[in-house]
Amino acid sequence: MTASDSTLRRFLHGLPGVDAVGLEARAASLGTRSIKTTAKAYAIDLAISMVDLTTLEGADTPGKVRALGAKAVHPDPTDRTTPATAAVCVYPDMVAAAKEAVAGSTVKVASVATAFPAGRAALSVKLADVRDAVAAGADEIDMVIDRGAFLAGHYMKVYDEIVAVKEACGTSARLKVIFETGELSTYDNIRRASWLGMLAGADFIKTSTGKVAVNATPANTLLMLEAVRDFRAATGVQIGVKPAGGIRTTKDAIKFLVLVNETAGEDWLDNHWFRFGASSLLNDLLMQRQKLATGRYSGPDYVTVD
Asked: Under a CB-based contact definition with an 8 Å cutoff, are residues 240 and 268 in contact?
């Protein structure tokens, strides 16, 4: 498809409308499924391996980032069978410290860019942000779309920006495109944003920044999983999904894994294709993992407080 405002609008508004009641009912139904203990142990380890361990605060220091990197590599220092997390996610100026901390491991370094979280900056500033992060060694870039442009119907502007950021990533960094679903107002908009991001070259589509009131939900993640499934069926290209913000417990994480399995399928049950954007989730996964192994919960000092 040759992109232009008119062709993008025609395509995106020609997508089937979302049955909100049906979507939420299916997400709720899948969330009620229980799994056996052996499957739960597998699911916990899988979820740990999918976490993007994140710190995105103004008070971040190189020391805090190094500590987070060490935790990503060995989430439970008392049990080296615990899998490493997928990545550490930091601001661009902290990429070098994160790379140092995870050197020699499988843990990737992801960096938010493009004037995260609001995205209110000139394109030249956003691209400089991306290039700085990539030059410092970022393996992945998490960009935010211009929600104002999207909501105003300026789809080509959003498309061109994603294409430019993808180019700035070069060949070494994968691109995650954040929609901030809590600001898109409707499920139809989330479906349109998903297809727009994929058409423009996203390697991952991501729900949220974690900085607004409504972040990842089972329903909006289910909708995005349907989009990547249908996109692969149409194009042969597989795209990852990252729900972020508000996923705090093992129970929540397992619900999302069920959504992945039942909607997109087993091909997405791998941290190359599915991630959790989370800061507090990992600690609960570690507590529940130890409970399965020992039959009891550990004390409050068992895991580090990030």
From this structure: yes
- Identify the bridge partners of residue 203 per DSSP, sorted by sequence position: none
Q: What is the DSSP letter of 105?
A: S
Looking at 126, 242, 252, 255, which residue is catalytic? Answer: 242
Predicted confidence band of residue 296 (pLDDT cuts 50, 70, 90): confident
The residue from 139, 142, 203, 284 that is catalytic is 142
Q: Which one-letter amino acid corresponds to residue 182?
A: G
Structural class in CATH, domain 5-14+37-292 = alpha beta
Judge whether 206 counts as a catalytic residue: yes
**Eight-class DSSP state of 305:** -
Active site residue 242: yes
| Least confident residue range of 19-28, 32-41, 67-76, 271-280 | 32-41
Domain ranges of the chain: 5-14+37-292
In the residue annotation, 126 being an active-site residue is answered as no
The one catalytic residue among 203, 206, 255, 284? 206
Output the pTM of the full model. 0.94
d(CA 121, CA 99): 27
